[in-house]
Amino acid sequence: METLIVLFGAFTATLLIIWLTTKRLELSFSGSVAMALMLVFTAIGHFVFTKGMAMMISFLPWANAIVLATGIIELVAAIGLLLPSTKVLTGNLLILFFILLLPANIYAASKNINLQTADYTGKGLSYLWLRIPMQLFFILWVYFSSIRNNQKSK
């Protein structure tokens, strides 16, 4: 749920700052900034709570390394969303990344993996099921803020 608070909070703040300074409503740019900040937030979580997040993919070799790598991917994507020359490519790759994460979220929810162990204070099983529609929401967010509107303007 914190990710949604960061996403909507950053989106609202960015919209307001741009509106107050330029009197323009920049939905696409604000959406990209918000997603970038959310990705930084989630990347930090991957670095701080590596052991707890690795539980979801513990059946894979190098689970902790995969969690750290996803954090790095999120940081790189955050930067890519903010650069006009890489925004559309980053958006496409980020959608692919979110699709690739779906099986881990489905696996964790379907196997009743309790994230409250392994030094990680998770939200429990209901939160795991909520992550699946959130992932789909993030895909739509990236599409509309980084890809669709930028392809129309070319």
UniProtKB/TrEMBL annotation:
TM region(s), chain numbering: 6-22, 29-49, 61-82, 89-108, 128-144
Full protein name: DoxX-like family protein
Entry keywords, A to Z: Membrane, Transmembrane, Transmembrane helix
